[in-house]
Amino acid sequence: MKRKLFGISSEKLPKADRTADEELETEPTRSTEVKAHTRTSKPKSVRKDLYESLPIKRVDCIVPEEMRFCPDCNTPMVHMGYSFVREELHIIPAKVCRIQYYQEKLKCPACEDEGDTTILAARTPSALLKHSPASPDMVAEVMYQKVFMDLPFYRQEKYWKQLGVPLPREKAANWFNTCALEYLEPVYQLLHKRLLEREVIHANEVPC
User: Fold this and answer.
1) What is the pTM of this model?
2) Are 179 and 143 in contact, with CB atoms under 8 Å apart?
3) What are the beta bridge partners of residue 107?
C-alpha cells in the first residue's frame, strides 16, 4: 500500500490489465455517412457599399496653364474630361469656437425730441443653461461621449483640454445631469405615457 501511494507511478498498465483492455476493444469501428451539403458564403462588401453613407467631396486635378500646350508642336490643347483615379478618407478634427451674441437696440428720434425715450431691442436666443457657456451641441457631445462611447468625465476633461477648453469633470457632470432632468426627462415621461396606452408593449413571435 505504501509503495502504491508514495512510490513511483507510471502510466503504463501492467501486462495483465493491458491484455484485459485489449480484449474490451474488440468491437470494430463503425463508419457513418454524412449527408452532403453546400455552404453558402456571404458576399464580401465592396468599398462602395462600405462608404455609401459618407459625403463626397470632389477634387479636380487640373493641368497648370503653362503646361496646357502640346509638347510636340506647342499647340494649345483642348479639354477632354476627367477620369477617376482613386479615393481616400479624410477626417475633420473637432474645433471649438466662441459665439458672442450682440443685441441690437433701436431708439425713436421723434420721441427723443419730445423728451421721451422709446427703445426697441432685438430678440436673442435663450441660453441652454443660465449663466453658463454651455451650448446645445457641446452638451450633446458630452452626453454622447459619456453614454454612447462610455468615456468617463475625467477622460473627457483631457479631451476638451486638447481642444483649448478648460472643462472640469465636475462641470461636465453638472451639464449632463441638469440637461437630462430639464430637457430629456419630460420627453421620456411623455414617451412612457404613450407606451402604456398601447395594447401590447413587448412581444415575441407568439401571436397576440
Assistant:
1) 0.62
2) yes
3) 119
Q: What is the largest CA-CA distance in the chain?
A: 130
Which helix (H) or strand (E) is 189 found in, with range?
helix 185-196
Q: Which of 74, 191, 175, 187 is nearest to 128 (CA)?
A: 175
Cα 122 from chain centroid (whole Å)? 39
DSSP tag of 106:
E
Tell me the pLDDT tens digit for each residue of 91-134: 988 899 999 999 999 999 988 888 888 899 999 999 999 999 99
Grid coordinates of 166: 478648460
**Residue 113 in grid coordinates:** 425730441
C-alpha cell of residue 164: 483649448
Type and span of the H or E element at 153:
helix 153-162
Environment class of 141 (CB within 10 Å of its CB; exposed 0-12, middle 13-18, buried 19+): middle
